[in-house]
Amino acid sequence: MYSEFYNLSGKPFQLTPDPNFYFDSSTHHKAMAYLSYGISQGEGFIIITGEIGSGKTTLVGRLLQSLDPNEFVTAKIVTSQLDADNILKMVAASFGINIETGDKAIIITKIEQFLRGNNRAGKSTLLLIDEAQNLTTQALEELRMLSNFQEGNKALLQSFLVGQPEFRDKWANDPALEQLRQRVIATHHLSPMTIEETREYIEHRLTLVDWKGNPNFSENSLAEIFKYSAGVPRKLNTLCTRLLLFGAIEELEEINGEVVKEVLEDMEQDNYAASASARLAQNLETVAANGNHSISQEDLEMAKQAELRMAADLLKLRKRVVRLEKNIKVHDRTIKGTIDIVEDWLEG
Question: Is 131 a member of any domain?
């Protein structure tokens, strides 16, 4: 919707990580330097950590995108709570190794054969583990054991571990991971972007979808955006998407500080309504589980307020959508008229 209104060729702030939108902030530049250093060493573990939404997955995607498939065989695993046996099965599956047994010894043997085959073909093998904080100590130890495979003095597998801040504490302090710590050759923790980087991030993403300065982001809007997001990419994407949608609906050519405040207020109301509905649902489940079918006045009032807020927001959105649709129709008629004039001129 807003893409058409602002003549953008795509969605600049989508929440799905896209390496094509990678922004090389100072902290991401350092992380990429560590990853590149790790690849040049060809062994050990590289660990990258960061808060939720700090851009870890986009960073990893950018790295994979930059590697020559003729030189590297890569696989990426996004982990859940995996135990030692399941991590080996996931590693095998991610590399496309056919496993028809649950026998651990056979799985390890097949992985080793795969690694040696890559090495004979002159290729390095890289394994990237995302959400590494979900791995158990035993699973991490299995990964460490895979790093023991060598051909002469060359390691056959190199692993990059990417996770949230708690993973940094885990690998650094868990006594059972001493041998893994000895294999870590570089580590970096992603920090939030500065306010100036926040501006550059927004403009960078907009430019990638053919932004020509409309809408303009005023200085006070950037201050409010940074105040909310604290330089965290995912929070920036969430807010900027809402700002562009609001701007398109209201037919704005500039996003200023007051617009940001209004959108943030809408987001806060949305969050309140969602949390109120969730609390009510939880309370009703508790009532049903206890065999008590009466609902308290507080629960009823909470439901009423949530419903009223959601209805008001929906009405407001519908009015804005109607205005936007009318505007788009006007633009369509203008474009069609221009095309007709050009066609008549060419025919004449």
Answer: yes
Q: Are residues 215 and 246 in the same domain?
A: yes
Domain housing 214: 196-342
Residue showing tokens 């788009």: 328
As beta bridge partners, residue 188 has 48
Q: Compute the distance between CA of residue 252 and CA of residue 256 in angstroms, rounded to an integer.
A: 10
Helix axes 233-249, 195-207, angle to 10 degrees: 60
> Tens-digit pLDDT profile for the chain (348 aa)?
799 999 999 999 998 999 999 999 999 999 999 989 988 888 899 999 999 999 999 998 999 899 999 999 999 998 767 777 789 999 999 999 988 877 899 999 999 999 999 999 999 999 999 999 999 999 999 999 999 999 988 999 999 999 999 999 888 899 999 999 999 999 999 999 999 999 999 999 999 999 999 999 999 999 999 999 999 999 999 999 999 999 999 999 999 999 999 999 888 876 655 555 555 556 555 555 565 555 566 655 665 566 556 655 665 666 566 556 656 665 666 666 667 676 667 666
Written as one letter, the residue type at 196 is E
How many angstroms separate the CA atoms of 240 and 247, rounded?
Answer: 10
Reading the block at residue 42, the tokens are 């060809």
Q: How many residues would you count in the chain? A: 348
Asked whether the whole model's pTM tops 0.70, one would answer yes
Residue 14 lies in a domain: no
Q: Looking at the structure, do residues 155 and 200 belong to the same domain, yes or no?
A: no
